[in-house]
Amino acid sequence: MAQMDEFRERSEVSALVIIEKELSYLIMQAALEVYNKLGLGFPESIYEEAMNRELTRRGVALERQKKLMYISRERKSVGFFWIILPMVV
Prior knowledge:
Largest sheet: 2 strands, antiparallel
Strand order of the largest sheet: 1-2
Radius of gyration: 16 Å
Shape: globular
Number of strands: 2
């Protein structure tokens, strides 16, 4: 039963409204372009650099390797992770 509740919670997240539709569309286009050019098998750093260049070419400024803290629902720090943050120019 707990698994079903967790599934429902995840499904609700996927039904969220996309706020930055234009930016999201640009990011998806860039990701597909990078995938079509490079394919599979490269280290993550290659894809990161390719995405950086493709997003910049499309006029999207970004902040690379931003360290963020993940906080659980109980408001407890779980740990840190690194992301690439696109920013509207």
